[in-house]
């Protein structure tokens, strides 16, 4: 998939109308649609590396970023994606506006909906918030993270990073390590990667594992060395620092010793292993800087780059669906 | 108040939970009480002035006694008033309701109990009985005036949804109330395990990313409650048991002779956790919905009599409290109008004999709180419901009488329609 960068016409030819009005979960897609979306995103990677990055695929469209939870990279990634496609982009952070005066999520959504946006990108601290919102608005909704539920664009950008690094996803051994319990990134990745034929393991202390996680079609490991043995990809998850002080794990140093990724533990993985992290990283907690910054191993920078391309693909595809109506 | 005119119900299918009779019959109501019952289809020598209702073979049974109803009165009237709850009850064939003490102000004082009773008397629809708080302000610390509230008309004491965490306090409530002959109710839930949870721990909640508590939260507190009931010799109403594991502990304790009366909500008999589906907040309940295996175990426990009483767990919540992300939404569902059809649906699905199910909403709850209602015996109050067993219904929450429309049954197909409800011989609903 790392063939010479396709031209704009070729990228245009790859655009397909999105199968649904909203993107709320990776389960909204089937494997063929995922492949089409990744192919399209691949095309945008090439365009993004040119000097003139801006195209007019979303000309006249309005995109609202509605982020109830703070986020730097996801919000700027969607913002850049929208702007490079030619849309008008508005960022809203309701924590600092009227939502704190008692206006509910639905009231905010209905108000914004009345301004006739085409696409609403939403992040919220509650699982199911994006789904609830999608039932109350007439525009398309993209879930940019709902509580501990899903973060589908992250799953897609991780899949694209892996596909570009290995040429395929089918058959890859992927270990997702750390706080799986609270991670929407883990849920979207498990759903997407198992759908695409990867062998997925989850690794972490039992206090950070969801109940019955073995029924997600993954194998469960509590020992990091054992869990990453022979894997092609080690995906580290961020551990919220407030979960560290004895509530779920005893201390930061114990966590790093047992479940933090360093060079020595990484040696257990397959020789060509690549390391991923959705960011922002807690260096010295879940991952050692030595590993995170080694460009021969780390895909972390690629993930950020792929993020913009994947979000452009999502937006272009949703807009193509709107154009068809 | 003048005595209502006599009514003769003929050609009925009578179900009397006291005798277990389920068959043809006729029933005469005079002076607000059941005057005569026969297993013939009619009465031989009725005076021509008496109104005769031909039941056409429809079900005639005692009106329902619902031990767990919340209203918003006093303090939160936009949710539900005593009047709107009473109208909903009458339409649902429920002739006696016990309102929970978690109102504003809390029913932890005889004057608030008295207020409820006077309001109910003025509304003149169904019987309304208050449940008093077990502890002052539902705070789980000092005992409320259990004796005075009992004298004022409270039929049992409970801290409603709040578990009484301090075992010493709960032990004292049990032994004190027991000496006064007052029933204590408690919902078993370990507050630490269940803190902040909105679902039952397991595969479903994990996939949905919902904060969840294990069933063990219920089992742990039930074990404590059983031990304290045993220690004090008190009668205990186990409020809304909901899963197979605590049912095992309940069965063992009952077999040892611990004086336990167990309730289950109709919601937990009708839904499992998958009904939450795409974060349906109308299915956010306390206790949370359980896996299907627990629902089936609960139905089995009703059929065997291990669970004595079925309640509606009527908990009105207005749209603004429900139209929120799942973990922020208020728990609870309205249920007065759907209790009977949902119960009859269990009968139609073949889970239990009709008389057994009817008993769990009439005689058993009436006996638990010492009411003369709940039976078709001459001299018993003429609290009756006439019901078309077969009529299919598609529940539309918007059509409910309750001020709040948060019905978990919205969009569900049930079977059974109330045709007439009588309270003390007065027709309070005619459909």
Name of the level-1 CATH class of the largest domain in chain B: Alpha Beta
Number of strands of chain A: 9
**Gyration radius from CA atoms of chain B, angstroms:** 21 Å
Low-confidence segments of chain B, ≥5 residues, pLDDT <50? none
Task: Describe what you observe in this structure.
The complex is a heterodimer of chains A (325) and B (431). By secondary structure, chain A is an alpha/beta fold. Helices cover 38% and strands 14% of the residues of chain A. Chain A has a 5-stranded parallel beta sheet. A 4-stranded parallel beta sheet of chain A has the order 2-1-3-4. Chain A is globular, with a radius of gyration of 19 Å. The model of chain A has no long low-confidence stretch (mean pLDDT 92). With 431 residues, chain B is of the alpha/beta class. Chain B has 2 domains: 7-60 and 382-404 and 413-430, Urease, subunit C, domain 1 (Roll), CATH 2.30.40.10; 63-368, Metal-dependent hydrolases (TIM Barrel), CATH 3.20.20.140. In chain B, 60% of the residues are buried. In chain B, the strands form 4 sheets. In chain B, strands 1, 2, 3, 4, 5, 17, 18 and 19 form an 8-stranded mixed beta sheet that branches. Chain B has helices at 82-91, 110-123, 146-152, 167-179, 191-194, 203-208, 216-232, 244-256, 266-270, 292-304, 319-322, 339-348, 354-359, 363-368, and strands at 7-16, 21-30, 33-38, 51-54, 59-62, 64-69, 94-99, 127-130, 132-133, 157-158, 184-186, 199-200, 212-213, 236-238, 260-265, 309-311, 384-394, 413-423, 426-430. The mean pLDDT of chain B is 96. Chain B is 30% helix and 23% strand. Chain B starts with 6 loop residues before the first strand and ends with a strand. At the A-B interface, helix 5 of A face helix 6 of B.
Secondary-structure topology with pairs:
The complex is a heterodimer of chains A (325) and B (431).
Chain A: H1 8-14, H2 31-48, E1 62-67, H3 73-84, E2 88-92, H4 105-113, E3 119-124, H5 129-134, E4 140-146, H6 152-166, E5 173-177, H7 184-195, E6 199-203, E7 219-221, H8 224-227, E8 233-236, H9 252-259, H10 263-266, E9 274-276, H11 289-292, H12 300-324
Helix pairs in contact in A: 1-2, 2-6, 2-12, 3-12, 6-7, 6-12
Chain B: E1 7-16, E2 21-30, E3 33-38, E4 51-54, E5 59-62, E6 64-69, H1 82-91, E7 94-99, H2 110-123, E8 127-130, E9 132-133, H3 146-152, E10 157-158, H4 167-179, E11 184-186, H5 191-194, E12 199-200, H6 203-208, E13 212-213, H7 216-232, E14 236-238, H8 244-256, E15 260-265, H9 266-270, H10 292-304, E16 309-311, H11 319-322, H12 339-348, H13 354-359, H14 363-368, E17 384-394, E18 413-423, E19 426-430
Parallel strand pairs in B: 1-4, 1-5, 6-7, 7-8, 9-10, 10-11, 11-14, 12-13, 14-15, 15-16
Antiparallel strand pairs in B: 1-2, 2-3, 5-17, 17-18, 18-19
Helix pairs in contact in B: 2-3, 4-7, 7-8
């Amino acid at each position: 998939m790392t063939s010479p960068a396709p031209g704009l016409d070729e990228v245009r030819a790859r655009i397909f109308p999105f199968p649904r009005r909203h993107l709320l979960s990776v389960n909204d897609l089937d494997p063929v649609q995922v492949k089409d979306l990744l192919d399209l995103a691949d095309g945008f990677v090439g365009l993004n590396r040119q000097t003139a990055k801006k195209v007019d695929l979303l000309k006249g469209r309005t995109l609202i970023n509605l982020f109830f939870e703070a986020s730097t990279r996801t919000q700027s990634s969607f913002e850049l994606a929208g702007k490079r496609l030619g849309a008008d982009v508005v960022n809203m952070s309701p924590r600092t506006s009227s939502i704190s005066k008692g206006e509910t999520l639905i009231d905010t959504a209905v108000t914004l909906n009345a301004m006739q946006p085409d696409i609403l990108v939403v992040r919220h601290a509650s699982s199911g918030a994006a789904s609830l919102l999608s039932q109350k608005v007439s525009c398309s909704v993209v879930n940019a993270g709902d509580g501990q539920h899903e973060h589908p664009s992250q799953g897609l950008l991780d899949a694209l990073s892996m596909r570009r690094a290995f040429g395929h996803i089918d058959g890859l051994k992927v270990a997702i390590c750390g706080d799986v319990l609270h991670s929407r990134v883990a849920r979207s990745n498990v759903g997407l990667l198992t759908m695409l034929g990867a062998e997925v393991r989850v690794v972490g202390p039992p206090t950070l594992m969801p109940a019955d996680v073995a029924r997600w079609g993954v194998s469960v490991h509590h020992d990091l060395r054992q869990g990453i043995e022979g894997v092609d990809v080690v995906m580290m998850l961020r551990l919220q620092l407030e979960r560290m002080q004895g509530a779920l794990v005893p201390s930061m140093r114990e966590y790093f010793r047992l479940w933090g990724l360093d060079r020595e533990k990484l040696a257990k993985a397959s020789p060509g292993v690549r390391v991923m992290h959705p960011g922002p990283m807690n260096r010295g907690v879940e991952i050692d800087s030595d590993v995170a910054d080694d460009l021969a191993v780390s895909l972390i920078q690629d993930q950020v780059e792929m993020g913009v391309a994947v979000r452009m693909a999502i937006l272009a595809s949703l807009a193509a669906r709107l154009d068809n109506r | 108040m003048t005595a209502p005119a006599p009514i003769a119900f003929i050609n009925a299918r009578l179900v009397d939970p006291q005798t277990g009779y389920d068959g043809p019959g006729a029933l005469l109501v005079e002076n607000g009480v059941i005057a005569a019952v026969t297993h013939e289809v009619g009465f031989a020598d009725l005076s021509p002035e008496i109104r005769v209702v031909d039941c056409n073979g429809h079900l005639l049974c005692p009106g329902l006694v619902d031990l767990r109803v919340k209203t918003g009165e006093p303090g939160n009237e936009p949710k539900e008033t005593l009047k709107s709850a009473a109208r909903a009850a009458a339409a649902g064939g429920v002739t006696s309701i016990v309102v929970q003490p978690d109102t504003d102000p809390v029913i932890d004082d005889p004057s608030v109990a008295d207020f409820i009773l006077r309001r109910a008397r003025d509304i003149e629809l169904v019987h309304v009985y208050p449940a008093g708080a077990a502890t002052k302000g539902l705070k789980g610390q000092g005992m409320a005036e259990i004796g005075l509230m009992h004298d004022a008309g409270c039929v049992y004491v409970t801290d409603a949804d709040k578990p009484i965490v301090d075992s010493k306090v709960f032990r004292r409530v049990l032994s004190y109330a027991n000496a006064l002959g007052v029933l204590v109710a408690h919902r078993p839930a370990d507050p630490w395990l269940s803190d902040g949870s909105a679902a039952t721990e397991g595969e479903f909640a994990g996939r949905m990313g919902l904060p969840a508590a294990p069933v063990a939260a219920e089992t742990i507190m039930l074990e404590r409650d059983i031990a304290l009931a045993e220690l004090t010799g008190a009668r205990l109403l186990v409020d809304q048991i909901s899963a197979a594991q605590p049912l095992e502990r309940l069965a063992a304790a009952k077999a040892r002779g611990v004086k336990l009366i167990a309730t289950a909500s109709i919601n937990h008999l009708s839904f499992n956790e998958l009904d939450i589906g795409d974060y349906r907040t109308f299915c956010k309940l306390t206790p949370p919905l359980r896996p299907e295996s627990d629902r089936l175990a609960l139905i089995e426990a009703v059929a065997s009599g291990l669970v004595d009483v079925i309640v509606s767990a009527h908990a009105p919540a207005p749209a603004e409290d429900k139209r929120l992300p799942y973990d922020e939404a208020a728990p609870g569902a309205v249920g007065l109008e759907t209790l009977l059809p949902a119960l009859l649906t269990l009968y139609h699905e073949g889970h239990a004999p009709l008389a057994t199910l009817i008993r769990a909403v009439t005689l058993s709850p009436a006996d638990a709180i010492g009411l003369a209602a709940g039976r078709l015996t001459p001299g018993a109050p003429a609290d009756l419901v006439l019901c078309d067993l077969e009529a299919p219904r598609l529940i539309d929450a918007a059509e409910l009488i309750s001020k709040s429309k948060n019905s978990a049954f919205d969009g569900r197909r049930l079977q059974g329609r109330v045709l007439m409800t009588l309270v003390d011989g007065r027709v309070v609903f005619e459909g």
